[in-house]
Amino acid sequence: MTLSSKNKTVSVILPNYNYAKYISSRVDQVLNQTYPVSEIIILDDASTDDSVDEIKDALVKIRDSHPEIKIKVLVNKVNSGNVFSQWQKGIRLATSDLIWIAELDDVAKPNFLKSAVEAFIEKSVVLSCVGSKFIDEKGRPVLKDSLRKIKDAFRKNILVYNTVPNVSAVVFKNQPKLDEFLEEAKKYHLSGDWFFYIKISETGRISYIKKTLNLHRLHSGSVTKTTDLGERFSEMRKIHSYVLSHHKLADNETKKSIERIEQKLERNWGV
Hints:
Strands 1, 2, 3, 4, 5, 6, 7, 8 and 9 form a 9-stranded mixed sheet that branches. It is globular, with a radius of gyration of 18 Å. It starts with a helix and ends with a helix. By secondary structure, the chain is α/β, with parallel strands linked by helices. The chain has helices at residues 3-6, 20-31, 51-65, 83-93, 112-118, 154-158, 177-185, 192-201, 223-226, 229-246, 253-269; strands at residues 10-16, 39-44, 70-75, 98-101, 107-108, 125-135, 141-143, 170-173, 205-217. It folds into 2 domains: 3-220, Spore Coat Polysaccharide Biosynthesis Protein SpsA, Chain A (Alpha-Beta Complex), CATH 3.90.550.10; 228-271. α2 (20-31) runs parallel beside α3.
């Protein structure tokens, strides 16, 4: 690792809602990263389980083993009803060069952060994404590969569909515009993360690392499985409309790709 990437500080945002059973192990994963963490920000969105007690125990662990890490905790008395509002709160508190939003129920390999941060050797990189695989509630693999086939033209593909498996797989540059981007992302119930990545991509380059360093946990009855497909399709079309009106496309390739995926989903989803 070169000096330019080694000097980057990292804030880790841990947003939580009723994931008490994962808090201790997730904090261990953050502390055991081969690249040092500068700041940990824990957000609880009015959990109804034992999360607050688990968070208190985690704070003791962090302070005892890594007293150099800055810790910030924000516990909501009322549920925000919007995960992107929680991201926004965490980002407003973050003071490091880079930000990693590590969802509590996901899993990171020890070298996740080191690999992701290395991409920022290039000054133009604003977001670094690693490969992901999917696990169930008990940590068993449920798919062999990522849900999406990520090609070399990562930035172009992200304009057509969400090429980022989940937010735990990315590290992004801390910049003032993030708050503005999330304010817009909150207009989407399901696709705010995708819109957020597109807005970040407008400020620089995206790096993709093919190594599987992130495990994303899929839960039965999750939002992505139970929400009406019509809403998902509507949000996709809204984002496609934004892309076509705000991005200068050198050729018709992206426009044709958008048309193809919308036609395919219309047939498959019946919307």
